[in-house]
Write a structure and sequence with these properties.
With 102 residues, the chain is of the alpha+beta class. It has one domain: Aspartate Aminotransferase, domain 1. Helices cover 34% and strands 31% of the residues. It contains three helices and five strands; from the N terminus they run H-E-E-E-H-E-E-H. Strands 1, 2, 3, 4 and 5 form a five-stranded antiparallel sheet that branches. The chain is globular.
């Protein structure tokens, strides 16, 4: 059941354009938080850049969802770790992320 829920969690997180979850064989997923950087004078140019994962972690904590935030090393500074849990935990996370605005 854990393997099925991990796959479901991965596919749900992949639906958010501000998240880049990495596949895993463990009981958690590493998720990179990204944001879009656009130039007002030219809408053709927008880039995905590392987001403020601490801000995302704090938002989720306010919703009662605890995730692991990495302040270092630099390669993980824009990442959170999401533990695989019960289906209702995945549903709560997806609901909170659906309401998130950076």
């Amino acid at each position: 059941m854990l393997i099925q829920e991990r796959q479901r969690l991965l596919s749900k997180l992949e639906e958010f354009d501000f998240l880049n979850p990495y596949p895993s064989h463990s009981n958690f997923l590493l998720v990179k938080y990204v944001t879009w950087l656009s130039f007002a004078h030219c809408l053709m140019y927008s880039f995905r850049v590392d987001g403020d994962a601490e801000k995302l972690k704090n938002y989720l904590a306010l919703k009662g969802i605890m995730v692991r935030y990495y302040s270092g090393p630099p390669q993980l500074a824009s990442c959170i770790r999401v533990s695989v849990g019960k289906p209702e935990h995945t549903d709560a996370l997806v609901l909170a992320l659906s309401a998130y605005s950076a």
